[in-house]
Design brief:
Layout lengths: L1 E2 L5 H10 L5 H12 L13 H10 E2 L4 E7 L5 E6 L5 E9 L2 E5 L3 E2 L17 E2 L2 H18 L5 E6 L9 H12 L11 E5 L3 H8 L6 E5 L5 H7 L2 H4 L2 H15 L4 E6 L7 H11 L5 E6 L13 H13 L3 E4 L13 H6 L6
Parallel strand pairs: 1-2, 6-9, 9-10, 10-11, 11-12, 12-13, 13-14
Antiparallel strand pairs: 3-4, 4-5, 5-6, 7-8
Helix pairs in contact: 1-2, 4-5, 6-9, 10-11
Length: 349
């Protein structure tokens, strides 16, 4: 049976024609699914009984099962979800002043092997379908609906477990589905894709004609350090990565966000900040400094506040647009992949 969350509006329209229906049925279904958020086809009151039967035979509206729910004192919610094949993934809701942000996973596990990341402790089992990514957003939207009818998921970041550009086509379809005006209507500029740096995919993404944001997980200011903590850098060193970033800025006419986790005594010195300034020369990049969520199975420690502030000030002094990311969920399993890794027994409870 087909997961109805897996289809763009156009693809669903084509399926409707294949079922002997008019293409407008896709608009009708999108309205019921994403705007009215029904859980059963029988709730679609303006759809004929006979067509509802067809829908039930052809499609499923089933969402993942919640295995564990963690709620932080700051309102952050983290869900551990079980998919149809018993795979487990994580999704997170973060509440900012400007809206409700959902952090979505794109794969079951991750093959990038970043040394500081809990997600990297479990190898990739498979890619997530577009529908499985959409279902994460729908699960969070259901929780918001329970709180207050007018609350909406306003922003989506594809920064959970997995490398989005290692699952490129499904991620692109996911973006088109949640961006669709007749559906969830999440604005393109409210959607961010985060990659650890696959140059060919960065260039391909630059030609999609989307106004979606791109974030680069950099986390080091030189190849030597990045090789130690991010194996992807051995295949695509910084010169190749920044060549792709420059091409992205040229093609998409958009700047990238550079994500930089500060790790004590590894990448957080003033010299590292100066190296980063040199790397960014010639780009319009914006830097997001990230306090590290420690995982005891990894050897890395977070930089202290003084070191973070000094790094920040050095970038500012050199004209770099930089912020320090606000932390969420400090009292729950905040690190990406941490809750799932505990479930799989890879890290201790």
């Amino acid at each position: 049976m087909k997961n109805i969350y897996n289809y763009t509006l156009k693809d669903l329209g084509d399926l409707m024609i294949g079922l002997g229906q008019k293409q407008f049925r896709a608009n009708q279904l999108y309205s019921w699914i994403y705007q009215k958020r029904v859980k059963e086809f029988d709730e679609m009151s303006d759809v004929s009984l006979s067509f509802r039967q067809t829908l039930k035979q052809e499609f499923t509206l089933k969402l993942p099962k919640i295995i564990k729910k963690q709620v932080s004192y700051d309102g952050t919610i983290k869900l551990l979800l079980e998919l149809e094949d018993k795979s487990v993934i994580e999704v997170v809701l973060m509440r900012y002043d400007y809206g409700n942000v959902v952090c979505v996973s794109s794969q079951v596990g991750c093959n990038m092997g970043c040394k500081f990341c809990a997600s990297g402790l479990i190898k990739k089992q498979r890619d997530l379908t577009a529908g499985e990514m959409v279902s994460q957003v729908m699960m969070i939207q259901s929780l918001l609906d329970e709180e207050e009818e007018s609350k909406r998921v306003s922003h989506v970041v594809i920064m959970g477990s997995g490398e989005p550009f290692d699952n490129y086509n499904n991620v692109m379809n996911f973006i088109r589905i949640i961006n669709e005006q007749k559906g969830l209507a999440i604005g393109a500029r409210h959607i961010t894709v985060s990659t650890c740096g696959l140059p060919n995919k960065i260039v391909e993404f630059s030609k999609e004609g989307l106004q979606v944001n791109l974030a680069i997980s950099l986390h080091a200011s030189n190849d030597e350090t990045r090789n130690k903590i991010m194996p992807i850098n051995k295949a695509y060193p910084l010169t190749k990565l920044f060549k792709a970033i420059n091409e992205y800025e040229k093609n998409a006419n958009r700047r990238v966000t550079i994500e930089y986790i500060l790790l004590k005594d590894l990448n957080d010195s003033i010299d590292n900040a100066r190296e980063l300034v040199k790397l960014l020369k010639g780009t319009f990049a914006y830097v997001n400094l990230i306090p590290y969520n420690e995982v005891k199975e990894n050897p890395f420690k977070r930089s202290n506040k003084e070191r973070v502030r000094a790094f920040y000030e050095e970038l500012k002094r050199n004209g770099v647009n930089v912020t320090i990311r606000k932390e969420f969920g400090e009292d729950i399993d905040a690190a990406c992949g941490q809750l799932r890794a505990k479930k799989e027994g890879v890290i201790d409870e």
